[in-house]
Amino acid sequence: MTKKVTVLDYGSGNVHSACKALAHAGAEVTLTADPQAIYEADGLVVPGVGAFGSVMQKLSSKAAGRFIDKRLTATRPVLGICVGMQVMFETGMEHGIETPGLGQWPGTVRLLDSPRLPNIGWSKVTPDSGSALFDGVEQEHFYFVHSYAVTDWELDIRPPFIPAHLTFAEHGQRFLAAVENGPLSATQFHPEKSGEAGLKLLSNWIKSL
Q: What burial class does residue 166 get, using C-beta atoms within 10 Å of its C-beta: 0-12 exposed, 13-18 middle, 19+ buried?
């Protein structure tokens, strides 16, 4: 059965390329902010480009935090992409301005310590063993466009609970490139711009729904 994926339409750019990639990876895709469609979809994708504060303002205008909370409470999968990953953390620090995020994970999004910003281009990632997202693409490169990231994972999950699968990359310093934490997954890179490797990653996520 084809999985139904809703891409959250809240005014972010780059949504159409994400929709096309998800459809190519095997999903039935709807672009909408309709609460019923968001709740009922097999998977919800939260895209994001631009500044953390701007994305949070747009998400707040659509009450997106409530929609995401409701899905995750029911263990229904959510995938954040780029700034859509960043806003899952508690705080974003851009240009000296502190902006509250959605707070699904503890941590702060900060400017990368690198002489060359933004980080634009292909980078190799280092997936955690047991990653479902990176099954079959563990050695591949993915496409990044960002200056800010989370460098430290602060959520302490211990047995009998299942720890998160963390994937890292480097640009001046090590940062989180992806997180798989129960029903909530996210990538700092753009899988929809990452060629066959990105399509395989999206296909892996869709098959898990």
A: middle
pLDDT at 162: 86
Distance CA 6, CA 41 (A): 6
Is 154:132 a contact under the CB 8 Å cutoff? no
Q: DSSP per residue over 180-205, as a string?
A: EETTEEEESS-GGGSHHHHHHHHHHH
The residues annotated as belonging to the active site are 82, 190, 192
pTM for this prediction: 0.97
- Comparison of pLDDT for 12 and 2, the residue scoring more: 2
Q: For residue 96, is pLDDT > 90? A: no
Query: How far apart are the C-alpha atoms of 29 and 45, rounded to whole Å?
Result: 10
pLDDT band at 167 (very low <50, low <70, confident <90, very high): very high
3-state secondary structure of 95: coil
**Which residue in 108, 137, 111 sits closest to 125, CA to CA?**
137
What is the enclosing helix (H) or strand (E) of 167? Answer: strand 165-171
| Alpha-carbon gap, residue 44 to 168, rounded angstroms | 23
Per cent of the chain over pLDDT 70 is 100
Contacts of 128 (CB under 8 A, 6+ apart): 165, 166, 167, 180
User: What was the pLDDT predicted at 156?
Assistant: 86
Range 105-111 average pLDDT: 97
- CA 148, distance to chain mean position in Å, is 14
